[in-house]
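Kindly review both lines to help learners:
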Amino acid sequence: MSLYDVVEPGLVTCAEPRYRIAEIRAADPLGADAVLAAVPGINRDADTAALTVALRALVPDLDRVAGWSVVEALAGMRDLGVLLGSLKRHGTEPVAAVPEVLPVLEELGRRTDMVPRDTVHHYTTWNPLGRRRRSYTGSETEAHLQDAVRMVFPGLVAALGTCGELARLEPYDPGFACALDRTAQHVQSMVDSIDFTVAHVAPEFFARTLRPYFEGIDVAGREYLGPAAAQVPLWLVDLTLWQSDRSDPRYDAFLDESVRYSLPSWRAFHAAHRGGVSAVGKLTAALSWESGHRTPPALTAAAVSLTRVLRLLKTFRARHLGIARKAYHDDLRLYETGSGGAPVALLRSVLDLTRDNENLVRRATVPPRTPAA
């Protein structure tokens, strides 16, 4: 039993096909199990000729792809993606080496309403477990990293639900604090995930062994990043808690680039809430209208709950920054930016923004001093 299975709620009951995780993991529309089982050994040998042959052998006819369900299309993109990333890691542009894969990637992108290559969701959440696990290296450490990201998915789905509810409420509504408390419970899985990563994935392994497999590839003249952990959109939680009206241009620019790697419903969530009034904005405005020493109980509860979830986000980001600093230290790094396209300095900026918003809420609840007689 994996760490993901311990925390997985009943996502299989959802109508959204991208949440039908067990079905996607079970699917093998390309008949790729045997070929992909050999990939770690081929990668150890840096055998680009064998990888090219494997990719060419798996490319399906477009007529066949046209008959696939969304579940099958997601699984097909997952399996092609392992070979795309492997070829690029060894210095070969995969679409240039196997041109016939281009229309297939574009069609899979259209059928799944996602980018025309694999994402972090293909590599982790939708990846089979056990003997069928798709892997670049076949190592236990890589499996731990996949499981650490995989365990976040159920909590993130649930957090987006409570954040959507939060956006419709005002701080005086008792449900505002309740929605924040439920969001905090869901965000805890992200803190657990980063702790699991710290315990099981050495920065050296990520920087030197795995990071090269996450490089961007060229698809019809446009670069698409590999399955980076930054594509797990914790920033959608930021959006409704503070980012929609309390961000900065660098973070906004990063999100504009990252949002295209999200699931369609998550992109819709971003579009619906971008530019709205955040929970921090609503609460601080409400508190500013109150005078005297007594804050209404509903606002006090909201402030306590919002501070709690912001503290969890801050904890996650501080630990993530610690990992990134080690993996991208001058003595270790192979790349200037993270696999999600952002420099380590941006992680520091987002941590500071999260801390600033936590402090703003905390200060807003401090009663004014009574002037001395």
